[in-house]
Amino acid sequence: MKNLKLLFFLLTFSFCSQSSEMTMGMPEPYFGGTEDMAFSETSLSRDGSFSQGDYIIKTAYASTDVSSSNFENTIDEVEDLVKNYNGNISNTYLSTNYQGLKSYNLTMNIPAEEFESFLLKVEEISKFTNINLNANDVTKYVLDIDSRLKSLKDEKKALEEIKEEAVSTSDKLQVQSQLRYINQDIQVLEGQKEYYENSVSYSTLTLDIREGSGVSLFSWNYYVQRALNWIESIIGFGVSFGIIAVPLLLLLLGFKKFRSKS
Known about the structure:
This protein is α+β, with helices and mostly antiparallel strands. Helices cover 57% and strands 20% of the residues.
């Protein structure tokens, strides 16, 4: 009787496992664009509010234009603000265009409950030229994971009871094999849930700080900015050269004076 019970359960479990495998490979969320997203995404205006769900992944993409004289200061203020909000910077990138104007891109992760307040503080430092807010509701995926975890854990408990009742070594090995597959599936689902929970707890802002963006190549402002940059470079070179050249010149004059006396 116990062998029949074991056989029936294993056949049932095998059928459930095959249907489960078709959904176990759920892809990780992709945030690169709306066309490839595995779940619903809502883009919002500046005055909109994020959607209200239990598991919302918030992201924002923004840019701001600053003067050349205020470029470095703006970067420092934004990075200090991230620290004040107990956030972190996961990526930075500095580039220079054909006009010699710099652009600094940084990705910041901020505690989700402070995200909207953080955006307002960033805009106090420098007004956004544009901003795109996204709210990705993954609540139904987390609920689905919870449901599947519960089913797997119930199956695991039942198998463990059957393993205790099994008499032959072959029966025990069969049950042990099925338990191994169940434990693997549980680990995968728990990893997916942890990923979602971590993504929900921190919201992300990718900000592009652009130096003098929009300055025309044919405008006087452009030439004034370039001239000031050149002058600054020349002065810096002159100071550096003087620090090295003056001691050498004094040494050379002293050597000539010494030779003339001798």
